[in-house]
């Protein structure tokens, strides 16, 4: 049996690149540490932090931290653009089938189970592809947060002892500059409304777009084995969502 060495060499290159990046972030943390001493020596009281702000420590967002955040955001945007480009034919089919479903169910008011089943299959393919894309974007943000952890660990190590720890290193989501995917990644069905055709860019909650109306029709259909009076969206239970 022939062993595929390309897979192992690719993993080795990835691990090596990760070590180089970690070294660079730690070096930059040690370099930035002296300029951060005054701000870290007297951190804001936890009760004074702005919980609704983009970041609770805006005074600690150094150029290096902002660069890591910008890189992660750019990578996530590129993944989204690539998804829409690669699945452009699927999106076009969904747009066409959305108009057909809306016309059949709302204009003619004649149910067409076969057409709706085809539409549901297309939406399933889209949601699967969007889910894979969301997973890759989540990996990007995780790697960026790992870089922030290396950076801040080097900063604090260089400045110790401090009167008190300015932020908990054992809670990565509370580090200055922490990165998370924006809310749009929880509603990937909304991306289907960016068609550049008869309708302008989507607005969250908009109900006049054919995709929105067709999805509502799809979700209102009863699930096999469920009470016919139970909407599909209600039958999925808590914790489930659509794209």
Protein described:
The chain is mostly helical and 243 residues long. The chain has one domain. The protein has six helices and no strands. The protein has helices at 5-41, 63-86, 88-107, 113-159, 210-220, 232-235. Helix 1 crosses helix 4. The longest helix is centred in the middle third of the chain and has 47 residues, at 113-159. It starts with a helix and ends in an 8-residue tail after the last helix. The model is unreliable at 196-203 and 228-241 (pLDDT under 50).
Layout of secondary structure:
Blueprint: H1 5-41, H2 63-86, H3 88-107, H4 113-159, H5 210-220, H6 232-235
Helix pairs in contact: 1-4, 2-4, 3-4, 3-5
Structure keywords:
mainly alpha, 243 residues, single chain
Low-confidence spans: pLDDT under 50, at least 5 residues?
196-203, 228-241
The assembly state of the depicted protein chains is single chain
Helix content class? 55-70%
> Strand share of the residues?
under 5%
Radius of gyration: 24 Å
Q: How far apart lie the N and C ends? A: 42 Å
* Total count of strands: 0
